[in-house]
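Quick check before the chapter quiz. The format below is the same one you will see on the exam, so make sure you can read both the input and the output lines.
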Amino acid sequence: MVFRSGRGPETIPGVLLEGNVLERVERFRYLGHIVTEGLVDNEDIERERRALAVRCNMLARRFAKCSEQVKVTLFRAYCLCFYSCQLWTKYTRRAINNIRVQYNDAYRILMKLPRYCSASGMFALARVPDFFAIMRSRVAKFWSRLRSSKNEILTTLAECQDCSILKHWRSVHQEPNKK
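Here is the expected output.
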């Protein structure tokens, strides 16, 4: 995979390894995270949105007759984990909005709530974090782990104040409508 900076040459020569040309790809799955040559996270966000839909539908089918308390516990266990979301730094509003809506709808489906009930109200009543609270929490925990790492590369990244990743992570901690 070749990551373009926007100012590089149009054609890139093939890379040889022991006389064999390596296949060039536009996207690659690494440790479950989808990496694209443009370093855009929309495909990975869509992967996680679909996984969330599958998990929610399974819970709604299998546990339809359980109490609210059991459903909330199951939702917390299976639907609050957005794998690698702290790495999402370059995406469209549409991509992040789609997964947020999926998260809200997942809770509504599991709890058999009306389609247009207040998301903030339903999460507050159940004491379940909303989508943006999860994102802020995951980013804060990740940043804390970077800062306390014994790896010099990671601590250097954590100390870089004009780093584009840090700027994005700071923006995640703002109110959603101020982004």
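If your answer matched, good. The mean pLDDT is 86.
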